[in-house]
């Protein structure tokens, strides 16, 4: 167990913090002494999550679509006015849909690239310029996916997440003089609300192809983010850590 004060006095923004993995990250941060802001598109989802999360500590939400530069700019101003600083950004918001590559429309491709690559980039650049670079201190955790052997069945997200992984390495070097660390977390298949959008037949038997023979939990992903965001990981930057029960190393990749 980590100390309850691991993230004391830290201000943390978790995108997509109203559900699934993001909500578990927000909860873990609150339980370890941080104040947390969650952000995503749907206010109702954020409000429901907030009712649960605020029982663990100081939390609020901001409605923001990470694909919209103006909304991101407003979010940054809002945090500057309310909290006055930001210590950690968790870029967790994202998603995609399964499809054969040849069936993806132009709009479908652009929607997924915009969400996962451009959105993550816009958030990272804006918040670094507003907080991390002037503060000469910051920390970014990017949630990507298990793209170790490509991502058959979801080429758009594989390409976008690979972009985020490379961006993580590049910025870890460029922004190291500002004392900013950036790392990526690559979950395998995690039992979360996100899986509800996949047809049950697609999810059938997935555990058999994972060496550990089970799906991951949102809490397990949250614990890794907690570690990377904390001083315990002070010498780790530009890294991608897979949390997949060994899935990347063995077994069939997805069939569609
Ligand atoms: C194989 C492995 C299994 C294996 C299963 C296990 C995998 C586990 C690994 C990963 C798990 C997760 O990430 S779980 C997390 C999942 N959570 C999410 O995905 C939630 C967030 N997702 C989204 O918001 C959407 O999927 C996303 C497309 C990115 C953004 O939506 P938008 O509102 O921008 O999109 P829309 O305006 O509705 O549509 C834009 C275009 O995209 C197309 N589009 C949107 N959804 C579509 C769909 N389901 N099928 C086809 N096409 C779709 C539309 O037709 C449009 O194109 P035109 O019709 O041409 O105009
Ligand atoms: N579950 C899994 O097995 C895996 C998940 N992942 C990734 O982990 C992350 C969390 O997934 P998970 O919790 O499972 O799924 P969810 O669908 O529950 O979470 C996705 C979150 O992202 C938010 N979001 C999506 N698009 C935007 C946007 N444009 N702007 C702001 N917020 C947005 C959603 O909120 P709202 O609708 O309110 O905008 C939602 O809270 C995602 O990036 C996902 O792709 C990666 C590998 C495996």
Word description of this protein:
- This protein is α/β, with parallel strands linked by helices and 256 residues long.
- The protein has one domain (11-249): NAD(P)-binding Rossmann-like Domain (Rossmann fold).
- It contains seven helices and nine strands; from the N terminus they run E-H-E-H-E-H-E-H-E-H-E-E-H-E-H-E.
- The strands form two sheets. A seven-stranded parallel β-sheet has the order 3-2-1-4-5-6-9, with helices on both faces. It has a two-stranded parallel ribbon with strand order 7-8.
- Helix 1 (20-31) crosses helix 7 (218-229), helix 3 (69-82) runs parallel beside helix 4 and helix 4 runs parallel beside helix 5 (155-174).
- The chain is globular, with a radius of gyration of 17 Å.
- The termini are far apart.
- The model has no long low-confidence stretch (mean pLDDT 97).
- NADPH dihydro-nicotinamide-adenine-dinucleotide phosphate (NDP) binds next to helix 1 and helix 4.
How many DSSP E strands?
9
> Considering DSSP H and I runs of 4 or more, what fraction of the residues is helical?
40-55%
Principal-axis shape equals globular
Quaternary form = single chain
Number of domains: 1
Largest β sheet strand count, sense and barrel closure: 7 strands, parallel
Main sheet strand line-up = 3-2-1-4-5-6-9
Q: What is the highest CATH level, the class?
A: Alpha Beta
- Binned strand content: 15-25%
Bound molecules: ligand 8Z2, NADPH dihydro-nicotinamide-adenine-dinucleotide phosphate
Secondary structure category: alpha/beta
